[in-house]
Amino acid sequence: MLTFRNTNLGVGLLLLALLLWDGWHHVPWWFYALLVFVYSLIMFYGVYFIQSGFFMKTLYEGPPDAGRVIALTFDDGPSAEHTPRLLDLLKEHDLKAAFFCIGKNIAGNETLLQRIVQEGHVVGNHSFTHDTWFDLFPVRRIAAELRETDRRIESVTGKRPALFRPPYGVINPNVRDAVRQTGHRVIGWNVRSYDTMTGDNQKLMARLLRLLKPGAVVLLHDHGKKTLDVLPGFIRAARERGYAFVRLDHLLNVEAYV
Ligand SMILES: [Zn+2]
Question: Is 25 a catalytic residue?
Answer without folding.
Answer: no
